Amino acid sequence: MLIDGKALAAEVEAKTKARVEKLAARGIVPGLATVLVGANPASQMYIRLKHSACTRVGIRSENVMLPEDATCEQLIGRIRELNLRSDIHGILMQLPLPKGLSPQKAMMAIAPEKDVDGFHPVNMGALLLGAERLVPCTPRGIIYALERLGKGLEGAEAVIVGHSNVVGKPLAAMMLNRNATVQVCHVFTKDLAKHTRDAEILAVAAGVPALIKKEMVRPGAYVFDVGISRVGDKTVGDVDFDAVKDIAAAITPVPGGVGPLTVAMLLEQTVQAAESQIA
Amino acid sequence: MLIDGKALAAEVEAKTKARVEKLAARGIVPGLATVLVGANPASQMYIRLKHSACTRVGIRSENVMLPEDATCEQLIGRIRELNLRSDIHGILMQLPLPKGLSPQKAMMAIAPEKDVDGFHPVNMGALLLGAERLVPCTPRGIIYALERLGKGLEGAEAVIVGHSNVVGKPLAAMMLNRNATVQVCHVFTKDLAKHTRDAEILAVAAGVPALIKKEMVRPGAYVFDVGISRVGDKTVGDVDFDAVKDIAAAITPVPGGVGPLTVAMLLEQTVQAAESQIA
Predict the structure, then answer these.
(1) Which of A38, B184, B187, B232 has its CA 20 to 30 A from that of A59?
(2) Is A190 in the active site?
(3) Quick check: is A67 in a domain?
(4) Same domain, yes or no, for B149 and B234?
């Protein structure tokens, strides 16, 4: 079975749109501000994708641009302005930042209740402690898909490849909070296949094209491919999709899998943030 | 080899004492306040242990007691007083709290820079993000012991049994930050032995006496037993020590293993907190 990220995202968008309309009836339009430092083309594309998704569900969005050579003080100053604005409910700082700017310091400046990317330490900490509030969007999308597919996490053997702050570590915490048995592998893992073959649920976020071959996957596994790489003129994931699809119970394609779900979760979290700020 | 928690703790205490003396030369005496709600005998015992450890290294300590029926507001009020005092550098709220009091809410009230137990969400989040500041003391003790024993974590197969907020989850994050391959098992895990047999490093914090038998341990493993239970008139851990010691490369006894190390880490973190508050 193909896990159709676009279809799942469309479902989430429809539900989110309904929540936006409820807020509108109270005179509130959820507002998202994105912050882009410099002119990284990939970042510009992601920002565009997010703004057009906002438009689809009725979230007002704006982009704050800073030059490549902006100082940390300037960046934090702009974030603080956004923190104070009551028409902005969510703030997303597009990563990566240009060299010389500390993402940790800048992230700390975002008001935790507006941190719709879920990267502020206090939100990450609440996540690790099992009191999830705003959480990183890609892990949230994977958890959502599993729930929607009826694949329970309690007692399930989950294996994550990649231990980044954005995907691997927060996803591990979210799966543990749902009582999965969790293994986290990465570039330092000695025998990756030995681990991945245990997985009833396999999430791969390594950024290495075709890292996961058919013989590394347990038949009947649910496979989530977070990788996005360009190989020639094709966009590919970390999983050898054509081979693995024959033995997986369900698998996300790249593109059209985890990506659209991540954007949908951002919309949902922005509305969640708006709802909690007026409550 | 026996991992002598008392000896390792004594080492840490000696180093901590030297740091206290350096602070004294600047006119600063590190201060730790413990907060105890109610009269749980085990909690009282732990508090006494911590205060006498403070005395050994020259940390001034005091205990704030609240009655069993204290309200959340009263508890938070007392914590806020301690936050404001410049002679108190560390605040430790003894868990568990009486029913009706939310540990999360109370924990949020502790100034993060005085959170020497490392349980505040912002410290937990920094930990998950790989920017460790003040961290939970038991995981820190285990990491310390591994470093001291020269057992590298990078690429090592680590298995943790237990996924609590106090030990399992923060230890998993600390091991991932050091590039171990990490598996976290718990009461919902289907085949515990299958996982534990992978472990070059095995940390058990399940609270189930003799849960880990010899045949569940990989020969040559480093075994850390965090469990403390009373069985008859004996204090025992989660590992069948007498059998497992024959095949482990190194193992902590109970008592005298992880416990003393945890207290030593509390002292070290209190001094660390004092140093960072005067910097």
Answers:
(1) A38
(2) no
(3) yes
(4) yes
What is the number of domains present in chain A?
A: 2
pLDDT for B279 equals: 72
- Nearest residue on chain B to A173, judged by CA atoms? B169
Q: How far apart are CA B172 and CA B184, in angstroms?
A: 7
Which distant-in-sequence residues (6+ apart) come within 8 Å of A36 by Cβ?
Answer: A43, A44, A47, A63, A64, A65, A66, A94
Q: How far is the C-alpha of B223 from the C-alpha of B214, rounded, in Å?
A: 11
**pTM of the entire structure?**
0.97
Note whether residue A5 is domain-resident: no
Region B198-204: what's the mean pLDDT? 98
Nearest Cα residue in chain A from B161 = A181
User: Under an 8 A CB cutoff, do B183 and A182 touch?
Assistant: yes
Residues 166-185 of B with CB under 8 A from A: 168-170, 172-173, 176, 179-185
Has residue A216 got a pLDDT over 80? yes
Residue B41 maps to which CATH number?
3.40.50.10860
Expressed as residue numbers, the domain containing B245 is 137-259
Which one of A50, A169, A183, A225 is the catalytic residue?
A50
**Which of chain A's residues have a Cβ under 8 Å away from the Cβ of B193?**
none
* CB neighbours of residue B276 within 10 Å: 12
